[in-house]
Amino acid sequence: MHRELLSQSPLLILPIVAMFVFIAVFIAVLVRTMSKRASDYDAIAGSPLCESMPEPLSQETHHE
Description:
The protein is mostly helical. The protein is built from 3 helices and no strands. 58% of the residues lie in helices and 0% in strands.
């Protein structure tokens, strides 16, 4: 009885649609990432180590 009810449910299409949306977005991000050359990332590669970036707030100026 449960199998018949579940097999006839129109809501079963939603997980399948969600899976295809996920795969499409994943492939789009993958293609966009892989299509850039390594030289495109050189400008931002050292940004976490750059000293010209503003310092984070210290503990004494942080309001809790």
